[in-house]
Hints:
Blueprint: H1 2-24, H2 34-40, H3 52-55, H4 69-72, E1 78-83, H5 86-89, H6 94-102, E2 105-108, H7 114-117, H8 127-139, E3 142-150, H9 171-188, E4 195-200, H10 213-218, H11 229-241, E5 246-251, H12 258-273, E6 280-283, E7 286-288, H13 293-304, E8 314-323, H14 338-360, E9 364-369, H15 399-406
Parallel strand pairs: 1-2, 1-9, 2-3, 3-4, 4-5, 5-6, 6-8, 7-8, 8-9
Helix pairs in contact: 2-6, 9-11, 12-13, 13-14, 14-15
Bound molecules: alpha-D-galactopyranose.
Alpha-D-galactopyranose binds next to loops.
Amino acid sequence: MKKYLRLLSLIVAAVTLALSLTACGEVEQADTGISKAVELYGTDYEYTLEELPEMKKAMFSFMPQAPSLYEAFQDYFYVGGCINPGNYESGKGEDFTSMMRQFNTFVLENASKPEPMHPSEDKYNFDTVDQFVEFGEEYGVRLRGHTLLWHAQCPEWFFYESGTSGDFASPEKVLKRIDEHVTTIVKRYKGKIDVWDVVNEVFNDDGTLRNSKWLQTVGDYDGDGDSYDYIEQAFISAAKADPDVRLIINDYNLEWSYAKTQGVFDIVKSMLEDGIKVDGVGLQMHIGYDTNIETLRKNLEILAGLREYNPDFKIEVTEMDMSCFKWGDDSKTVELTDSFMAQYNKTYVDAFKLFMEYAEMGILDSVTFWGINDDHTWLNSDGRINHPFLIGSSNRLKETYWEVISLALE
Length: 410
Ligand code: GLA
């Protein structure tokens, strides 16, 4: 019955839209049905397994019958995509329809990183992030800010006494710069950006701290025996600038490295014990199709232990993609044979089953992909063609997509 009501509402909306476009004399194909198609999906739609064959008639994510990942998983977690300004600036085409249908949380690929946002001490670039926030407000989606501090895509002026070389600045000066940088950005987007990756990739794979210029310049400034004072400063300044924003420590290889996961656990535990607000850990989840999901489970178990120190502590999946190549393999293309796809799909399905389990325990609250479809991914560098998402090139709905979304259908 639901299916027919939905079909009816589609027809009504299409006719209404066609009439209104004719009335305005506008016949542009690009506008037809696109934003309306997005509006057609309420936030409480429940899909059923019975409807699956009908939904599968949608070969592409922008087609009206296509379901929505975020709606299907709404009882579990947010589902998100990493985007660039072009995704919401350049008219409402198929990519836009697809991403608004599938995702309810978004993050910018580059524009909110330290280098683009704060290239020199007295210069901030806010325009792109301001527009991202306007887009978020217009569509009522959850926004992730990525990232306040990182060793990469970070301007050198932060670390030097003057200019971008020469003597390192004093720890006081670097801490003051961190405070000013974090406070300015977080305050500006207070109540608009919902969650910030406060620091990104501050650990080595063995659980020790990365020897970044942040660590080298600030070190153990307060003399309490630990050398992550710059991380503490960033979290303290962010919490002060917006007490309601969620603050995340984000890193890679937490999917398999036990030592790194333990390193994150130890430092976050100690920060929480010192009364510093840390709301969660972000697992980037740049994984391969051969990932061992049981190892991932063990690491989630470790991180879930942080709830003892902050009962609302969450795990977020922040940059998910699944490479079709094993680590160390430098081939450019991969043959998507049935047996390869069976393993690829199984890893995705097993990962999502695990995410659902942790969501049901109230621990995992979002899964964001580092892209919106296979057409654009950082994994396609040097002529390589990878296929890392559930949604393929041109927004084709892969079999992987159907297997994963089926997990949430009853
Ligand atoms: C890391 C960063 C992201 C992005 C990817 C590669 O995971 O956190 O911001 O740069 O690398 O694109």
